[in-house]
Amino acid sequence: MTRSTEIVRVLAEELTRLPPGTRVASEAEVGQRFGVGRAAARAALAELERRMLVSRIQGQGTFTRRRVDYLVAPGRAPSWSRTLRAVGAEPRAVVLACDEVPLPDDVAAALETAPGTAGFRLVRRSFIDGMPAAWGVEWLAAALVPELPAALRHEESLDTILRQSARVVPERAWTRASMESVPDDASAGLGCRPGDPAWLIASLARDGVGGRPLLSTERWVRADAVRVVLELGEA
Question: Which segments constitute the HTH gntR-type domain (predicted)?
């Protein structure tokens, strides 16, 4: 067993006992503790990051992380916050923009409305247990919830707003999930480097009663924060 491997073993065992969001020792601190050079300490921390036991947040440092399951399954409400709370996580969303703009042609087609229809482009950064976890863009017709900007100041769950204001029952029409390289605009929200691998989850929600499309979403999710779990049939 190499010295670096031994350091990883010791630190991995210790880190699993710490709460999520605990700051991890720096390269210099690891090197001093184990009596190794900066290169060996850096390699050990990189291996812990590769195993998704810690998360490196750009400009802040490296922290312990608890990955949570994000379940995509028939009959499940397409609610980010509700899905995460169901597995014991504490989600929080920050609105970065909520602009009324004409819907782009591809979004209008997905929402089955005319191109150029007034819509809301909602950009949000999401946290899980206080740590950056997701960044996404959501589109919906402005007529569905005309008061959306004001509503978001009092309720951060878009699923709840749709149920209460638009009197609809959101459900998944379809979902696509793939592992992709994070683009520049999403990397800042995720607290990672451009090009890092992350989940790209695109989805369309419809009204479970009337069937009309409600919401088009494209969300980037840190792979070290979330395990995307797909249930496609009955167990």
Answer: 1-67
Give the domain CATH number at 49: 1.10.10.10
- AA letter at 205: A
Boundaries of domain holding 9: 3-64
Buried/exposed 83-121: b ≥16 CB within 10 Å, e otherwise: bbeeeebebebeeeebeeeebeeebbebbebeeeeebbb
- Domain match, 51 and 128 both: no
Contact 204, 213 (CB under 8 A): yes
75/150 same-domain check: yes
Q: Give tens-digit pLDDT for 79-130.
A: 899 899 989 999 999 999 999 999 999 999 999 999 999 999 999 999 999 9
3-state DSSP helix/strand/coil % of the chain, to nearest 5: 30, 35, 35
pTM of the model: 0.88
- The dihedrals phi and psi of 147, each to the nearest 5 degrees, come to -95, 20
Tokens of 189: 């929200």
Q: How far is CA 224 from the centre of its chain?
A: 10
